[in-house]
Design goal:
The protein is an alpha/beta fold. It has one domain: Alpha-Beta Barrel (TIM Barrel). It has eight helices and eight strands, in the order αβαβαββαβαβαβαβα. The protein has an eight-stranded parallel beta sheet.
Length: 221
């Protein structure tokens, strides 16, 4: 595991909008022991990409608010209800409806983020940016859901002239939503390669894996 103190120190300064920045450790492929070490080092929020890993590690990790940050299939929603602090990846109405239905059935409310395909890549999930506000409004009306903001993944490029306008567009969307709903709290944007730029331009939640744990060791086939 990397020394995360410099990251924590930078994030402690907040973003230019005076907001606290929440660090979510992306724990895909990481063992419970590795995750526990990260929590002991100061990580308070942990996020899984796959439901199977989420459920397998749930009782083996000691502490941490649990996030789900990966693509979510409707038939796997049942494994997350009542166990997540925040589901980041609500990328279509059918998924939102299933989360809302099962949450209501369980007598709970699930906090979610609306995923926006800000780079407008066919290979990425999420609502088109121009539909973001309408999606936010629709999902906010669903009983069993509490929409807390937005999530986005920037394109894989180092070109700031490409990335900065996308960050600013997401921040504008976040601000519009916050005018409509006092529940709007999070703009989850920024991963290990671009988190500093995202925070500089308005993100208040980042999802870091490699920056915390180092390169992933994928199991050999």
């Amino acid at each position: 595991m990397n020394d995360i103190r410099p990251i924590l120190a930078k994030l402690a300064k907040g973003n230019p909008f005076g907001e606290k920045v929440t660090l979510v450790a992306a724990t895909k492929t990481r063992t419970p022991a590795e995750i526990d070490r990260a929590i002991q080092a100061g990580i308070e929020d942990i996020g899984e990409n796959k439901v199977q890993e989420f459920t397998e590690k749930y009782d083996l990790v000691h502490g941490g608010r649990r996030h789900f940050i990966g693509h979510l299939q409707r038939n796997k929603v049942k494994y997350l209800i009542g166990k997540t602090f925040l589901i980041h990846s609500v990328d279509r109405d059918e998924l939102a409806e299933e989360i809302a239905r099962l949450s209501s059935k369980a007598g709970t409310v699930s906090d979610v983020l609306v995923q926006i395909n800000i780079g407008e890549k066919e290979s990425k999930g999420g609502y088109p940016p121009e539909e973001g506000m309408a999606a936010f409004t629709r999902l906010s009306r669903m009983e069993g859901l509490r929409v807390k903001g937005f999530m986005a993944m920037l394109p894989d490029t180092d070109e700031k002239e490409v990335l900065i306008p996308l960050c600013e567009r997401m921040r504008e969307l976040f601000e519009r939503a916050r005018e409509r709903s006092s529940e709007t709290e999070y703009l989850s944007m920024g991963m290990s390669g671009d988190w500093e730029l995202c925070v500089e331009h308005g993100s208040n939640m980042v999802r870091l894996g490699t920056a915390i744990f180092g390169e992933r060791n994928y199991p050999k086939a």
